């Protein structure tokens, strides 16, 4: 599976150009914050864990999180629907569910758009 590669250049053949997947783990975030804040990683870990706990608790309570320039996390209610089991072809009713939706803010959208370009200015089709 493509998402299993930690670096895009480890993907075989054309996949390394078509997908730019780099996973950043919680540990990586802690180390990056520690470096930027000039603090010990063990001290920063508590802040990262607290932030993530607040995000989970807030979304779990059905509240929306808006971080200007970054984006909006909100709960989305999905209706139940009929679908088919791909193995048997049998009709199956899927019940309603709640999921988290993220909408990028303007600043993040621009940074992502600008970071993904090739050196020759052309973007690849996906």
Q: Main traits of this protein?
A:
elongated; HU Protein, Chain A; three-stranded antiparallel sheet; 5 strands; single chain; 126 residues; disordered N terminus
How are strands sequenced across the largest beta sheet?
Answer: 1-2-5
The arrangement of helices and strands along the chain is: HHHEEEEEH
Helix fraction by DSSP (H/I, runs of at least 4): 25-40%
List segments where confidence is low: pLDDT < 50 over at least 5 consecutive residues. Answer: 1-8, 119-126
Question: Which descriptor suits the 3D outline?
Answer: elongated
Mean pLDDT metric: 82
Distance between the termini: 17 Å
Q: How many DSSP E strands?
A: 5
Number of helices: 4
The radius of gyration over CA amounts to: 20 Å
Tally of individual domains: 2
Structural class: alpha+beta
Proportion in β-strands: 15-25%
Largest sheet: 3 strands, antiparallel
């Amino acid at each position: 599976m493509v998402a299993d590669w930690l670096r895009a250049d480890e993907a075989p053949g054309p996949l390394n150009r078509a997908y730019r997947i780099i996973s950043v783990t919680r540990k990586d975030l802690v180390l990056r914050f520690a470096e930027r804040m000039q603090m010990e990683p063990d001290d920063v870990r508590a802040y990262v864990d607290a932030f993530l706990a607040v995000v989970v608790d807030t979304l779990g309570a059905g509240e929306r999180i808006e971080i200007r320039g970054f984006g909006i996390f909100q709960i989305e209610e999905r209706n139940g629907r009929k679908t088919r089991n791909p193995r048997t072809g049998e009709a199956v009713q899927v019940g309603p569910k709640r999921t988290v939706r993220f909408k990028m803010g303007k600043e993040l959208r621009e940074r992502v758009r600008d970071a993904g370009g090739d050196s020759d200015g052309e973007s690849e089709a996906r």
